[in-house]
């Protein structure tokens, strides 16, 4: 007969770390990109609290709106704990930590653990080298940008709000920096330009996607970072159906690793061209990696690159 | 140089009222149904806190999952404050209050006000008869349901968790009860079966909509209540475009009033048939009411009825 303890505020543990206890709500889960949208909000909230900047309402020195845009998003799950495996009512402990990347960028790590697990410090070594099977890890690398032209989402330029404090943040060991990974993916239009050891190329599909005014834009008219996840999922689902696979199996897929680099934005009415290449692990049915490119169809401009390591549920 | 105060917990003012200070985040706004999803989460959180039930993980006396499903959703806005007018960075004060409707239903009111407005008690008279132009009001009428068959979303039956406490809640004056409004809308398949005084029938459109596995289902595989908003918006946008109106004008529409009754759910793979009839206010260009029905195409089963009073931005 006791009410659940849900009226909780996140706790700032020190100048770079935040902890929250979370009851997963319908808005955070489901088939769509809600969990990624929620993770993005936690990143903005953590950076706001740690860096003295109101990320939701930031301005450049010239008074123009500045956005802490997503440049690289990396999710690490396990067969036990993965982003589409959350359902409402799940109790989580979320630890978030912000790392210094200078005045124009910032990196945030999140660890989501079932709430009955003992809370521990979040060390980057754990995230990158010793992930726990009961935890979901997320790395967000964000850059400050503003619109180069007020009426366009195509010409975005780097810029930073003057009150953004970062010198006090811990520094991530150089070997964990996502800069090289993201810029190689951008240059090669793939996270796996040279193939994937142990995997063989399977099916491919290229399809068009018309940006959806109802779903895909955020509150300031930019193509929403979380929509890139659902746009890619829409293309992956088309390939899935072409292979004769069912919708329930799509929703039950387990995401072990998901990398997404954001290299461009787009305007209302744009048509995208999405390429999906499915790699299959030799000798391990159901272990697949989807290698995805998102381009503006008209110009061929690269908007995003993604690699999704998934396990199909065997029927 | 001061960090924004965003690490806030909602405050339970007494056994039926909750107040929260909110910085609107990207996940709460945008063109999609995010604001409605957020409002729904606030309803569940408020009912959980007020009624001693973990709404996110509720069970019937038989141990089956029980869902506090949305039956009637009513939004009241103004030209100044409306659901698509929120953008991230907006600071809101949200007051929520729960009212007794017996053991199987519950009614929740929310008032969203710019945070610099003085907080005041939330009286139903204000909500129904004296709404303030600087506030957005939302009424949610919810019913406890569970699945009649484990593998289907079609046969949902009423049922309530045994720990749901409601006797201590205030009672809403009978004249404000939404029961009659919702059941008439269900019976007539319209909130306006006899026409709308001062308005004349304009364009109509009927279109199909295939339920979208990527966007439309919640974490337990039910068609998500907030998706009904975006599904209806998708149909309204088609009519909008047939009338030669642009996407930016669609996103800039102001919603003065939005009623939505939920009378059925649907399964993966279902095709819907959506009817939209646009009423135009005589002599007042841009003042329109969209009268909408959502049916399962195969069976004709009524899933939802909506009425949206909107103002177009005059170019």
Automatic annotation (TrEMBL), chains A, B:
<dbReference type="InterPro" id="IPR024091">
    <property type="entry name" value="LnmK-like_bifun_acyl/decarbox"/>
</dbReference>
<dbReference type="Pfam" id="PF18238">
    <property type="entry name" value="LnmK_N_HDF"/>
</dbReference>
<dbReference type="InterPro" id="IPR040718">
    <property type="entry name" value="LnmK_N_HDF"/>
</dbReference>
<protein>
    <submittedName>
        <fullName>Biosynthesis cluster domain-containing protein</fullName>
    </submittedName>
</protein>
<feature type="domain" description="LnmK N-terminal">
    <location>
        <begin position="20"/>
        <end position="193"/>
    </location>
</feature>
<dbReference type="InterPro" id="IPR029069">
    <property type="entry name" value="HotDog_dom_sf"/>
</dbReference>
């Amino acid at each position: 007969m006791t009410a659940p303890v849900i009226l909780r505020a996140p706790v700032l543990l020190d100048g770079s770390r935040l902890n929250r206890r979370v009851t997963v709500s319908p808005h955070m889960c489901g088939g769509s990109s809600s969990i990624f949208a929620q993770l993005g909000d936690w990143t903005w909230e953590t950076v706001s609290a740690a860096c003295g900047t109101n990320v939701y309402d930031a301005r450049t020195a010239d008074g123009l709106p500045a956005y802490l845009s997503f440049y690289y998003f990396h999710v690490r799950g396990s067969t036990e704990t993965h982003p589409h495996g959350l359902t409402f009512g799940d109790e989580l402990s979320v630890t978030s930590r912000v790392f210094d990347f200078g005045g124009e960028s910032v990196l945030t790590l999140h660890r989501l653990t079932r709430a009955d697990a003992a809370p521990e410090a979040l060390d980057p070594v754990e995230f990158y080298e010793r992930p726990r099977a009961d935890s979901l890890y997320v790395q967000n690398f964000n850059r400050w940008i503003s619109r180069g032209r007020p009426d366009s989402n195509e010409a975005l330029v780097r810029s930073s709000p003057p009150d953004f404090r970062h010198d006090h943040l811990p520094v991530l060991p150089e070997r964990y920096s996502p800069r090289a990974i993201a810029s190689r993916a951008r240059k090669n239009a793939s996270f796996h330009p040279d193939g994937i050891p142990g995997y063989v190329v399977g099916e491919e599909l290229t399809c068009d996607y018309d940006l959806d005014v109802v779903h895909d834009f955020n509150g300031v008219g930019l193509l929403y970072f979380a929509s890139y996840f659902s746009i890619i999922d829409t293309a992956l689902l088309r390939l899935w159906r072409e292979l004769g696979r069912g919708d329930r199996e799509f929703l039950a897929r387990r995401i072990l690793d998901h990398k997404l680099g954001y290299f461009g934005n787009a305007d209302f009415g744009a048509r995208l061209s999405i390429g999906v290449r499915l790699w299959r692990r030799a000798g391990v049915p159901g272990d697949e990696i989807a290698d995805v490119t998102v381009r503006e169809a008209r110009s061929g401009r690269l908007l995003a690159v993604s690699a999704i390591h998934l396990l199909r549920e065997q029927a």
